[in-house]
Amino acid sequence: MIEIKNKHTGSILARINAETLAGADLRDMRLAEANLRGMDLRRVRLDNADLFEADLREANLSHAILWGAHLSQADLSNATIRGARFSDGSHAGAAMLAQSTLWGADLTGADLRQVDLREANLAHANLSRVDLRKAVLQSANLSHASLRNALLIDANLREADLSHADLRDAHLNEANLIRANLSRADLGSGDEGQFAVLNRANMESADLTGVRMRQAILVEANLRNANLTDADLAHAIISGTILRGANVRNANFEGVELATVTMDFANFSEARNADIPAYKTHLR
User: Fold this and answer.
1) Are 47 and 27 in contact, with CB atoms under 8 Å apart?
2) Contact 62, 86 (CB under 8 A)
3) Is 121 exposed, middle or buried (CB count within 10 Å of its CB: 0-12, 13-18, 19+)?
4) Exposed e or buried b for every residue in 5-41, given b needs 16+ CB within 10 A?
């Protein structure tokens, strides 16, 4: 018999007639503030469970199903969550993880489509190959996180902290990155023939200081008023992209075609290796 207790009061929230919670069916259970720290929860069913403010630090949730689960303000620091499914692909079936803590968690290959992660702490987390399409990550902390090959298509990353994040080969098509912090992030490629893709991404007023974007694809992206100081965009494809008013001081544009780029009022006089077409005007 396993007793699940409240992390504050020690009161019993549930009794499970089993020797382990691995593979257990805990669907729809009321487990708010539960103490599940370090528990073996592999392949557990937690669909629509209430885990508000639950303690799941160092727990093993590999391949767990958490469709529609309420995990707001839960602590999953250093948890193993590889291949877990937080979404059935619909908005109604997506888990709630707003203001949760996932510091250092391993979410490799997890399904987080349309999940609400606003203001969540994902610093130093492993999000490689994670599906975050249409996820809400507004104001989330993703500093130093690994997002290699992650799908962030149409994700809301407005004002998110992605500083020093590894975004090699990630897909951020149409992502909202307005005023996001991408300073020192790596948006290059980790494999031959692969590229980070940011087509039609909105990075207006984003901090891209020292960002690595070598060979990245940014077709029709919006970088209006973005700070690209010391950025490396060598051989990136930025056709149709807006750089109006951007700060490109010491940014490297080696091998970048600028013919169709909107460059008005950008300080390209301080950029490096920029082959500026003669007909471009209003350049500082």
Assistant:
1) yes
2) no
3) buried
4) ebbeeeeebeeeeeeebeebebeebebbbbbbeebbb
Closest listed residue to residue 135, CA positions, set 109, 96, 102, 100: 96
CA distances from 76 to 16, 37, 71, 81, 89 (A): 22, 9, 9, 9, 22
Rg (CA), the chain: 21
Give mean pLDDT, residues 161-188: 97
All residues at 6 or more sequence positions from 17 whose CB lies less than 8 Å from its CB, including other chains: 1
Burial label, 43 (beta-carbon count in 10 A; 0-12, 13-18, 19+):
middle
Task: Confirm whether pTM is higher than 0.90.
Answer: yes
What residues have CB less than 8 Å from 246, skipping those under 6 apart? 223, 224, 225, 226, 227, 228, 266
For 189-211, write each residue's pLDDT tens digit: 766 667 899 999 999 999 999 99
| Selection from 98, 54, 101, 63 nearest residue 81 by Cα | 63
Q: Within 13 Å of residue 86, how many CA atoms lie on the same side as its CB?
A: 27
> Whole-angstrom Cα distance, residue 202 to residue 113?
20
Q: For residue 199, give the 3-state DSSP assignment.
A: coil
Phi, psi of 270 (to 5 degrees): -105, 0
Return d(Cα 54, Cα 42) in angstroms, integer: 17
CB atoms within 10 A of CB 54: 29
